[in-house]
From TrEMBL:
It comes from the Bacteria. This is Crossover junction endodeoxyribonuclease RusA. InterPro entries: Endonuclease_RusA-like, RusA-like_sf. It holds the Pfam family RusA. The lineage of its organism: Bacteria, Bacillati, Bacillota, Clostridia, Lachnospirales. GO terms for molecular function: magnesium ion binding. GO terms for biological process: DNA recombination; DNA repair.
Length: 150
């Protein structure tokens, strides 16, 4: 099992963007798809944190993986003391963006070729959102057996 933390507000995987340009003579039109800069920056942060905290560990190419992601959102500064305490205790949890699937997507995609061959190897997972004084995303990855679990 490996565990690592990405510090800072949880980020979502941005949708690919497309730009359309005309050639110099204006006769041809070209479309180019690109990944938004914020997504590239966060994916690089995930890779760096994984390598700093887990070294060069990589799961075998035939492994079946379980990924657990805990996203901790920062508490807004304007929050009352009472509400802040309820957030810290988990009695109030974030019902806001980014969505859990987009956070899981950016984390799992970032680890392709680093922690594992491809995120298609993930066969099980869990995701939870909380508030915290220290925003971050905690990730654990473990290999699972081939047994049928219920």
């Amino acid at each position: 099992m490996v565990k690592f933390t990405v510090y800072g507000e949880p980020k979502a995987k941005g949708r690919p963007r497309v730009s359309v340009r005309k050639s110099g003579d204006g006769e041809k039109t070209f479309a180019r798809a690109y990944t938004p800069k914020a997504t590239v920056v966060y994916e690089n942060q995930v890779k760096i944190e994984y390598e700093n905290q887990c070294g060069s560990f990589r799961f075998s190419d035939d492994a079946m993986l379980d990924v657990r992601i805990f996203a901790f959102y920062g508490i807004p500064k304007s929050t009352s003391k009472k509400k802040r305490q309820m957030m810290i205790e988990g009695k109030i949890r974030p019902v806001k963006k980014p969505d859990f699937d987009n956070i899981a997507k950016i984390i799992c995609d970032s680890l392709n070729g680093i922690a594992y061959r491809d995120d298609a190897m993930v066969v099980d997972g869990m995701f939870r959102k909380y508030y915290s004084e220290q925003p971050r995303v905690e990730v654990s990855i473990r290999e699972v057996g081939g047994e049928h679990e219920q």
